[in-house]
Amino acid sequence: MPDLAPMARFGGFVASDLRDVTTDPAALDSAGFWAVAAGFEGRTVCARFGDVRPEPAAKQPARARWRGPAPADWTSSLDREAYIAGVRRIREYIAAGEVYQANLCRVLSAPIAPGADVDALTALLAHGNPAPYAGTIRLPGHGVEIATASPELFLRRRGSGIESGPIKGTGRTEADLLPKDHAENVMIVDLVRNDLGRVCVTGSVTVPDLCVVEKHPGLVHLVSTVRGELREGAGWAELFAAAFPPGSVTGAPKSSALRIIEELETAPRGPYCGGIGWVDADRGTGELAVGIRTFWIDRTQPGEPFLRFGTGAGITWGSDPEREWDETELKAARLLAVASGEYRGQYRAPYETTYEETQ
Fold it and tell me: CB of 28 within 8 A of CB of 277?
């Protein structure tokens, strides 16, 4: 394992000087600045850092510091045939009334050099695929090495105010978005409303924005906003219990969707589709993204470590199996090209957010 110091990077600031690590999200309501990596299967790592300082993203891509896998080295946990069969199986469950929507995901993997640093990949992604919730969490001694270019807000907290921004519906352009995408978004918004309603003041949960088209590098999304006021006595532990894993990457009803995901997916999602971000317990603020458009280094296998990346699509009765496969390819193509050093598009300036703006 490389000798890389623990650190976290989000929104124009970097955290260092690791003080504590815990798996208990209740610690996020104690004191200090925390980086949070909550895996889809439930493994949560909260790391408290002693030093947080502004550090704008590099002005140029860090290609010299990042050595990614060759494009041909990527393999998928579900190939095209298996994924299409999985979509058809979900449609059978929908026809039987067991679920209304379920996300079907696959994990892409490629061997990588032992000395790879996810923070160098984050710097490269910041220019090749800028995203509002991009960041790094690097905790080599705790099995957490994540570089995310997530466009999706899972949970934002400002005191008792809670906000979530579920994404459902993806296309190359706005013209690609179908009625199925709008229906799926509304369905997941209802699920998120119910999740937040478990821990928010009765009547405080609202939807100020529904199915807004957002443009991101290479594609567009339908995004909605759900807000509420956290009830007295509820904190991060209660929020996690009510809302995790994120509804936009599970399905509805969530319990049925999770059972179907376990049946059909052949690899653990890990940080992908979990919650990734930061919490400032002293200020009562925090921002966790849904762990999509996310890479992580897996050093648990003998030999070379693997770089992993997840991609998926929400399946409804109106889904066309081949189109859903194509959506997973669309979501992955640009990011894999950046990570493999094969991206030939125009590099953009990263999202610029100051630490003060996050408070």
Answer: no
CATH code of the domain containing 265: 3.60.120.10
Residues 6+ apart with CB under 8 A from 3: none
Looking at this protein, which amino acid is placed at residue 41? Answer: E
User: Is position 153 within any domain?
Assistant: yes
Question: Is 174 among the domain residues?
Answer: yes
Q: Which of 41, 92, 168, 327 does the annotation list as catalytic? A: 168
* Mean pLDDT to the nearest integer, 175-196: 93
Residue 264 lies inside a defined structural domain of this protein: yes
- Is residue 25 one of the residues assigned to a domain? yes
Q: Where in the sequence is the domain holding 91, given as residue range(s)?
A: 7-358
- Of the pLDDT bands very low, low, confident and very high (cuts 50, 70, 90), residue 355 is very low
CA distances from 29 to 55, 133, 231, 233, 237 (A): 25, 22, 14, 11, 9
Catalytic residue of the set 55, 98, 152, 287: 152
Q: Domain total for the chain?
A: 1
Active site residue 168: yes
Q: Is 98 a catalytic residue?
A: no
**Verdict on whether the full-model pTM lies above 0.85:** yes
Residues 205-221: tens digit of each pLDDT: 999 999 999 998 888 99
Q: How far apart are CA 88 and CA 78, in angstroms?
A: 14
Q: Per-residue pLDDT tens for 132-145?
A: 999 999 999 999 99
pLDDT in tens, 17-73: 999 999 999 999 999 999 999 999 999 999 999 999 998 766 555 555 888 999 999
Residue-level pLDDT at 356: 45
Question: Cα(178)–Cα(324) distance, rounded to whole angstroms?
Answer: 12
Whether the CB-CB separation of 87 and 319 falls below 8 Å is answered with: yes
